[in-house]
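Incident log, structure service

09:12 report received: a user says their structure output differs between two submissions of the same chain.
09:20 pulled the input from the user's history:
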Amino acid sequence: MLTAAVIGCITLIPGFIAFPLAASLRDAGAGYAQIAIFISTLMMVGIATLPLEIKYFGRNTAVKRNVLSLIFAVITSCVIGVIMR
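09:34 re-ran on a clean worker, output below:
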């Protein structure tokens, strides 16, 4: 799950590509929790866009938003992992 989270945080992929990619990962045998954290961090956490966020929202707000999004992604993926067993 850590690898999926890191890849999701640093990758910049639009949703219309990410969701079919998630289906392909599921078909290849990836777990639901790993797919959930990958998609969640991909959509919510933006390491690539962090400098732009800092410019417009300030360092404190941008970092808080990314950290809270990462925490929420971890919690959500754990819940999905338990539910989808």
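09:41 both user submissions now match this output. Likely a transient worker issue. Closing.
09:42 reviewer note: DSSP finds five helices and no strands in the chain. Helices lie at 2-10, 15-27, 32-44, 50-57, 59-83.
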